[in-house]
């Protein structure tokens, strides 16, 4: 049964169910548009994921059939009503960039489960996650150029690297809406699922990841992030530095034993 964590805020619900943390943007009256209270909750959720050994994977979703309609500049400029959340906002350096996954991304895999609108900052959050499950009637898009704005969450850099220059410039420069099927064809998302099932599909994916060796999973993420733009020879050196300790870990031994004994492995992250 999921437990609501005390790092939740009025606009960001953080729950843990076994090894899976689910983060729900909770401002449905504004299509879950970003607010200071939401970004503080998101920033602390990513920190909690990274620092809590028993957490193996996270899911980011939105309340009431919507993901996130982007920034609400007025709400982001208004201090949260909760004094404790105000203090957290002062205490977390660059909480807005951390919450938006521009900085301080969690060291564990993060899956987004999208229903409804995921535009502007909503798509920037998508691009900051590792796996993406999207409902077939969702709407994606980076609308910033249409408003004379700039995608400050990092998409001008990340999107071309993830889906190629031509596809990225189409999305960024036209500022048009993108359908889930288009996004799947571009390689921007992993799955397109029937409306109303994105969170369930994301949880199924999370459970499959959580059953794997956590050291191996986290090492794969780390190697990619640290070597993305290095020459192969240099990248392989870093890959070896990170990978060999995993090969020698207790988890690796347990994986081999479980295979021989024809049973599911019990990984401890050691």
TrEMBL record:
EC number: 4.2.1.17
Residue segments, region Disordered: 250-270
Record bears the keyword Lyase: yes
Top class in the EC scheme: lyase
InterPro entries: ClpP/crotonase-like_dom_sf, Enoyl-CoA_hydra/iso, Enoyl-CoA_hydra_C
Keyword check for Cell inner membrane: no
Molecular function via GO: enoyl-CoA hydratase activity
Pfam families per UniProt: ECH_1
Sorted UniProt keywords: Lyase
NCBIfam families on file: PRK07799.1 (NF005864)
Protein family membership: Belongs to the enoyl-CoA hydratase/isomerase family.
Full protein name: Enoyl-CoA hydratase
Source organism (scientific name): Actinomadura namibiensis
Lineage: Bacteria, Bacillati, Actinomycetota, Actinomycetes, Streptosporangiales
């Amino acid at each position: 049964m999921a437990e609501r964590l005390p790092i939740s805020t009025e606009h960001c619900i953080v729950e843990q169910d076994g090894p899976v943390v689910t983060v729900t943007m909770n401002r449905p009256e504004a299509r879950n548009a970003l607010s200071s209270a939401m970004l503080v909750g998101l920033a602390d959720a990513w920190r909690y994921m990274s620092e809590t050994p028993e957490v193996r994977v996270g899911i980011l979703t939105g309340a009431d059939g919507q993901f996130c309609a982007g920034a609400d500049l007025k709400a982001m400029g208004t201090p949260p009503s909760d004094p404790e959340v105000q203090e957290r906002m002062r205490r977390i350096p660059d909480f807005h960039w951390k919450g938006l996954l521009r900085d301080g991304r969690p060291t564990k895999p993060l899956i987004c489960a999208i229903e409804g609108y995921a535009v502007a900052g909503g798509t920037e959050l998508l691009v900051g996650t590792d796996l993406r499950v999207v409902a077939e009637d969702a709407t994606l898009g980076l609308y910033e150029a249409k408003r004379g704005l700039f995608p400050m969450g990092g998409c001008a850099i990340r999107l071309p690297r993830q889906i190629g220059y031509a596809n990225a410039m189409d999305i960024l420069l036209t500022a048009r809406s993108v359908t889930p099927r288009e996004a799947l064809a571009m390689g921007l998302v992993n799955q397109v699922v029937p409306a109303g099932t994105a969170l369930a599909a994301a949880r199924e994916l999370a459970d499959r990841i959580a059953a794997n060796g956590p050291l191996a999973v986290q090492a794969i993420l780390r190697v990619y992030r640290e070597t993305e733009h290095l020459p192969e020879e240099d990248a392989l050196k870093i890959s070896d530095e990170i990978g060999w300790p995993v090969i020698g870990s207790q988890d690796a031994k347990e994986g081999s034993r479980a295979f021989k004994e024809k049973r599911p492995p019990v990984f401890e992250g050691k």
